[in-house]
Amino acid sequence: MPQVVDKANLPERFPTNRHAAEFWEELGRTVATFGFLEEVLGKAIFAFTGTRSYSEDEVQQVYETWLSKLERALTDPLANLINEYEKSVKGHPEAII
Fold this sequence. Notes:
Elements: H1 21-50, H2 56-75, H3 78-90
Helix pairs in contact: 1-2, 1-3
């Protein structure tokens, strides 16, 4: 027999009722900050990989792998984005570190 939840008897603001509203606000801001950082890193990866020069021999191979790299830049977790950003900057011949 399936479990039934009596919504009328749940505490007010359930399931966030055990912490102050300030906690949930700060948690939301923290999550949003990480999301913003992921977005910025994705754009930076796009910029560094899309603006460097390639030889004629490299163009087709780079073009074929670029779409998957950009898709990962939009979906990868923060740690992977940081590593990809580092590789993108180091691989750009005109980047100033």
